[in-house]
């Protein structure tokens, strides 16, 4: 302790050390106001003691002893005694001694002073100020007494006070005394008011502290509920089946939140009922066995929560007029129903019940709503998992079905036999058919592996092994070889199938060339398409050609894609002149290629213009995310880009029985839209309704000659019309209708072009409204050893099967190895 004190003392300045040594109150005084009072008394008494002593000693040197000098020295001793008492435990008695001694000095100074009026007033003023060391009542009594005594002394013992000086002195001490009393009274009132304010503030602080403690307790309770909700949410977030997840979630919520009963309802497919999906305890089992359900309306707390998409809480069921008691749950005293919402759609309701009033309140809703949100997400994840699993199963079935169909087409008994098989007997590889298949042992001396493609069994790989060679390595090797065989034969089948398709494509190309040139010649009916040269000039022979010349001629066919579209007759050409024939044939090849290029170029230019126009309209439309702006830009650009008289779009209403004019090009189109023009879908005369009903495009090239045409007064110059359906996702959403002011404006190509445009616009609209999700899985296997390499080096199906049988037989040392293939054996 001393060490600490000395250490602290080293950090105090001189003034602080003097105060601590001379003025500081005694250590036994603990009250802060009392310590200040004792320290003030010590400072005053010590100061007065020194000042009066020094003043009296200096005066003694000039005038010698008198009553004033004696009183001064006496007061110095009394003041120093009061100082010593103020530094001790008797500090409360020191003011009496100090002020009493100063009173004697005042009277002595007043009676013997050289300036009686001045001394009288100053000394009494100081005396009255020092009376502040007493309590207020003592101070009033002290001042009153000395006022009376001072006035009496001034009248009786101070004859030197005469006239105006006496009046001023007496009035001065009275004024100063009253001022000191009033000031002390005012200061006391201020102190009292301050203390009252402090007391009131203290009370308010105490009340605030209580409120804060209660709020803190409530916050702790809410945080605990949120932590429990987070813990339960993490527990139910594991993706699994809906039934298991909801059962575990209900029981976990009941146990963690100490509830009486918890259940979960899900909305049925018709969106009309809440079906109980999970419930805790035996009551939940009973309700589930009854297929318990509630109507989705406001007649029940759960139906109301789902219908209004908001939580419903009954803190005390005995005070609620809407609560309906379940006979199986007689102890329910509080209930809360919270909707399970996913993407603004209610999928179910979480119902919780407590056995005591106010166990479920509005204040606890945030935690339970957060829990309900996590439960809704878990439900969505479980549903997505089930959908993905079902999609995977469907995809596998579809893939297997396609593989079976493809191999049935491959082994069609026309291009390939229906059964292919080979056997290796340690000597040679030979083929066998279904009628002479080898007899394999039936006593379990074989190991078999299925040759399957995309899960569809197409054949099998069989090895006859004795018991010593039948082990896991042999089984693994046979399975790996069968897998490699399956991969390689599927690759080879694809190659051969592509060759077939290429031949079919060439045939289709020839047919298209033939049909294309036929159409081209039909469109060139008014032009001359035959010419001859008579060594002077080139002349037209007309469409029927000129008469066959009498002199012999060599006819060379004009072929495009092996299709003859014309011929070249050369008179006087020797058929045995190989060089001339080669030259003529070379010219014919170049001629054929050039005229085909010209025809295709003409078609390509037209197609390029049409496609560029479609691309321009589609690009402009696709850059707009607002469907309304998208469709308005489509009709405006279609009219402008294709040079139509008018263009507009009809959209099918929600009931699917009426086409409503939604967008029109230009001011005329907007005026027609403002008229709320509608066409019932069953109107026979409407070209627009017919396009929507039949899901295909129609056109009329002379509307005035068509009695079924429905004219419109705002479009008086319409001469031809074309309407194509807008289809998105196999569903008709509207009709694109364009009109021209000339006859014979449209043909089949225009139907195709506008149908393409309508389809792209429909997709753009669909993309602006919906979104899609997709998942894809892929697996790859590593290559095997020398056996897989040899299998992959084969170029025919037969070679693959032979290599598989021979190499597997060598590797296993099996006396008999069979590799066979056949579609019939896989059909069960």
What does this structure look like?
The chain is α+β, with helices and mostly antiparallel strands and 828 residues long. The chain contains 20 helices and 21 strands. It has five domains: 31-202, no CATH class; 239-388, Beta-Lactamase (2-Layer Sandwich); 419-498 and 778-826, no CATH class; 553-623, no CATH class; 626-769, 2-Layer Sandwich (Beta-Lactamase). The chain is 54% helix and 16% strand. The strands form five sheets. Strands 3-2-1-6-5-4 form a six-stranded antiparallel beta sheet, with helices on both faces. Mean pLDDT is 75; it is low at 1-10 and 771-783.
Estimate the helix proportion, in percent.
40-55%
- Count of helix runs: 20
Mean pLDDT: 75
| Low-confidence segments | 1-10, 771-783
Distance between the termini: 102 Å
Number of domains: 5
Radius of gyration over C-alpha positions, nearest whole angstrom: 58 Å
Summary tags:
20 helices, elongated, 828 residues, 6-stranded antiparallel sheet, alpha+beta
Task: Give a brief description.
With 828 residues, the protein is of the alpha+beta class.
Question: How is this fold's topology laid out?
Answer:
Layout: H1 2-9, H2 14-22, H3 32-63, H4 67-86, H5 94-112, H6 116-130, H7 136-156, H8 163-236, H9 242-256, E1 261-267, E2 273-279, H10 281-289, E3 293-295, H11 301-308, E4 312-314, E5 334-342, E6 345-354, H12 365-410, E7 419-424, E8 429-431, E9 446-453, E10 456-464, H13 472-523, E11 531-533, E12 538-540, E13 553-560, E14 563-571, H14 578-622, H15 627-642, E15 646-652, E16 658-664, H16 666-674, E17 678-680, H17 687-694, E18 698-700, E19 720-728, E20 731-740, H18 748-769, H19 786-792, H20 797-812, E21 816-822
Antiparallel strand pairs: 1-2, 1-6, 2-3, 4-5, 5-6, 7-8, 7-21, 9-10, 10-21, 11-12, 13-14, 15-16, 15-20, 16-17, 18-19, 19-20
């Amino acid at each position: 302790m001393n060490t600490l004190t000395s250490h602290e003392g080293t950090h105090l300045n001189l003034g602080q050390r003097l105060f601590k040594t001379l003025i500081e109150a005694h250590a036994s005084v603990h009250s802060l106001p009392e310590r200040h009072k004792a320290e003030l008394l010590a400072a005053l008494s010590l100061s007065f003691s020194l000042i009066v002593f020094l003043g009296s000693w200096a005066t003694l040197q000039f005038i010698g002893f008198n009553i004033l000098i004696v009183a001064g020295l006496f007061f110095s001793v009394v003041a120093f005694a009061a100082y010593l008492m103020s530094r001790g435990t008797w500090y409360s008695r020191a003011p009496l001694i100090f002020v009493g001694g100063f009173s004697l000095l005042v009277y002595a100074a007043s009676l013997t002073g050289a300036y009686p009026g001045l001394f009288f007033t100053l000394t009494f003023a100081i005396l009255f100020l020092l009376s502040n060391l007493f309590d207020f009542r003592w101070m009033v009594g002290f001042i009153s007494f000395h006022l009376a005594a001072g006035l009496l002394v001034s009248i009786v013992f101070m004859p030197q006070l005469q006239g105006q000086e006496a009046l001023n002195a007496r009035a001065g001490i009275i004024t100063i005394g009253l001022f000191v009393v009033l000031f002390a009274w005012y200061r006391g009132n201020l102190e009292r008011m301050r203390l009252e304010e402090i007391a009131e503030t203290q009370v308010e602080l105490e009340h605030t502290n209580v409120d804060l403690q209660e709020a803190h307790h409530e916050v702790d309770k809410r945080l605990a509920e949120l932590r429990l909700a987070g813990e339960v949410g993490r527990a139910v977030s594991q993706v699994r089946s809906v039934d298991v997840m909801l059962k575990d979630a209900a029981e976990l919520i009941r146990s963690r939140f100490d509830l009486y009963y918890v259940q979960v309802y899900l909305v049925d497919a018709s969106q009309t009922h809440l079906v109980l999906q999970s419930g805790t305890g035996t009551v939940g089992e009973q309700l589930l066995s009854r297929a318990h359900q509630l109507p989705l309306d406001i007649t029940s707390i759960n139906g109301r929560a789902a219908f209004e998409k908001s939580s419903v809480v009954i803190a005390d069921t005995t005070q609620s007029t809407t609560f309906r008691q379940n006979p199986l749950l007689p102890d329910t005293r509080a209930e809360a129903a919270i909707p399970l919402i996913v993407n603004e759609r209610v999928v179910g309701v979480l119902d919780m019940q407590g056995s005591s009033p106010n166990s479920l309140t509005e204040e606890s809703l945030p935690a339970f709503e957060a829990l309900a949100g996590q439960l809704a997400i878990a439900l969505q994840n479980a549903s997505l998992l089930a959908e993905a699993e079902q999609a995977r199963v469907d995809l596998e079935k579809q893939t297997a079905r396609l593989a079976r169909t493809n191999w049935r087409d491959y082994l069609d008994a026309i291009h390939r036999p229906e059964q292919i098989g080979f056997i290796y007997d340690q000597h040679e590889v030979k083929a066998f058919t279904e009628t002479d298949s080898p007899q394999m042992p039936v006593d379990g001396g074989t190991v078999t592996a299925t040759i399957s493609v995309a899960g569809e069994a197409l054949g099998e790989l069989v090895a006859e092994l004795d018991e010593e060679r039948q082990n896991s390595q042999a089984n693994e090797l046979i399975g790996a070889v069968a897998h490699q065989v399956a991969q390689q034969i599927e690759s080879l089948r694809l190659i051969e199938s592509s060759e077939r398709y290429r031949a079919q494509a060439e045939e289709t190309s020839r047919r298209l060339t033939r049909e294309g040139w036929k159409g081209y010649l039909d469109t060139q009916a008014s032009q001359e398409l035959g010419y001859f040269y008579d060594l002077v000039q080139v002349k037209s022979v007309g469409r029927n050609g000129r008469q066959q010349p009498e002199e012999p001629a060599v006819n060379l066919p004009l072929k495009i894609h092996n299709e003859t579209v014309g011929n070249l007759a050369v008179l006087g050409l020797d058929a045995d002149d190989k060089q001339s024939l080669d030259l003529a044939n070379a010219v014919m090849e170049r001629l054929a290629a050039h005229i085909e290029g010209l025809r295709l170029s003409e078609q390509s230019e037209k197609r390029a213009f049409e496609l560029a126009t479609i691309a321009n309209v589609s690009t402009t439309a696709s850059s707009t995310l607002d469907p309304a702006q998208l469709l308005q830009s489509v009709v405006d650009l279609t009219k402008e880009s294709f040079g139509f008289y008018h263009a507009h779009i009809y959209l099918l209403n929600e009931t699917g029985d009426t086409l409503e004019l939604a967008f029109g090009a230009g001011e005329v189109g907007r005026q027609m839209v403002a008229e709320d023009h509608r066409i019932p879908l069953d109107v026979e005369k409407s070209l627009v309704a017919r396009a929507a009903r039949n899901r295909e495009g129609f056109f009329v090239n002379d509307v005035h000659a068509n009695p079924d045409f429905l004219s419109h007064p705002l479009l008086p110059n319409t001469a031809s019309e074309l309407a194509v359906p807008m289809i998105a996702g196999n569903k008709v959403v509207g009709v694109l209708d364009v009109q021209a002011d000339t006859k014979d404006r449209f043909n089949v190509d225009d139907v195709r072009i506008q149908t393409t445009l309508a389809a792209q616009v429909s997709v753009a609209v669909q993309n602006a409204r919906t979104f899609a999700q997709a998942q894809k899985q892929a697996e790859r296997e590593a290559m095997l050893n020398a056996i897989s390499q040899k299998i992959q080096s084969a170029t025919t199906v037969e070679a693959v099967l032979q290599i598989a049988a021979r190499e597997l037989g060598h590797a296993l040392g099996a006396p008999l190895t069979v590799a066979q293939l056949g579609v019939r054996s896989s059909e069960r």
